[in-house]
Amino acid sequence: MGKEQLQQGLVSIITPVYHAERFIEQTILSVQAQTYQDWEMILVDDCSNDHSGEIINRIAAQDARIRYYRLEKNSGAAVARNTAIGYARGEYLAFLDSDDLWNPEKLSRQLSFMTEKECAFSFTRINFIDAEGQIVKSNVPIPERIDYRHLLRQTVIATSTVLINRRFFPDFTMPLRRGGQDYATWLMLLRHTDYAYGLNECLTSYRISDHSLSSNKFSSIRQVYEIQTQDEKINKIQAAFNTFCFCVYAFKKHYF
């Protein structure tokens, strides 16, 4: 969609869905509770075989701002997100995973922050919550801003905190990767703008689970290295050093 066609002030919320029946209603309710109400939520189902679609359709029947689509075949979060972006009409794109939650002030505070900073790309702090919604870690620090070079070595941008102004990225789509797509996206954006700006407030709750702290972490490390060497064309020695720094920062963030 060309930037002249974007609806000014509208936030398009991008949510991929896969076997999300346990938490998806809570996630949608956290969007409906926003103090900023000029939004649309686009949920794209990657062929779930649980009750996710039924739950979403029930809520969408009462709120026309919520739109549900289902892919014809399982294709991964990258395709689901890009499909949602293709339907998005908003000046802004926000990303919210199907088990995460937003504080009611999330959009209003972040939009005001972006206007103040005159920036294209922002993120916020997060709380880590468990499956029951209890906070297990909070006040994880973030920088005031981060550039491409520093993002190569730090994991500071949580997907469900990101808000971007599409007028700066009119042809924006996310890289078609099965893994590490979000990290590859933030690097791509920082090749086209100087900084991503961090709003130093906990406005998003990121849900963690046992598998997210074990085998998936090793997979993420491999993905960081692959993205840097394959997508970003960084030499292997430098990419290995960057990945080591990335791991150290991630360990400190989760355990200290």
What are its keywords?
alpha/beta, 23% strand, ten-stranded mixed beta sheet, 256 residues, globular, 8 helices
Summarize the structure.
The protein is of the alpha/beta class and 256 residues long.
N-to-C span: 43 Å
> What is the N-to-C succession of helices and strands?
EHEHEHEEHEEEHEHEHH
Question: Which runs of at least 5 residues are low in confidence (pLDDT < 50)?
Answer: 211-215
Largest sheet: 10 strands, mixed
Q: Helix count?
A: 8
Total strands = 10
Q: Compute the gyration radius: what is it?
A: 17 Å
Task: Give the amount of beta strand, in percent.
Answer: 15-25%
Note the quaternary state here.
single chain
Global shape: globular
Mean pLDDT: 91
Helix content: 25-40%
* Helix-strand category: alpha/beta
Question: Could you outline the blueprint of secondary structure elements for this entry?
Answer:
Elements: E1 7-17, H1 24-32, E2 39-45, H2 52-60, E3 66-70, H3 77-87, E4 90-95, E5 101-102, H4 106-117, E6 121-129, E7 135-137, E8 145-146, H5 148-151, E9 163-165, H6 181-190, E10 196-207, H7 215-231, H8 236-255
Parallel strand pairs: 1-2, 1-4, 2-3, 6-10
Antiparallel strand pairs: 4-9, 5-10, 6-7, 6-9, 8-10
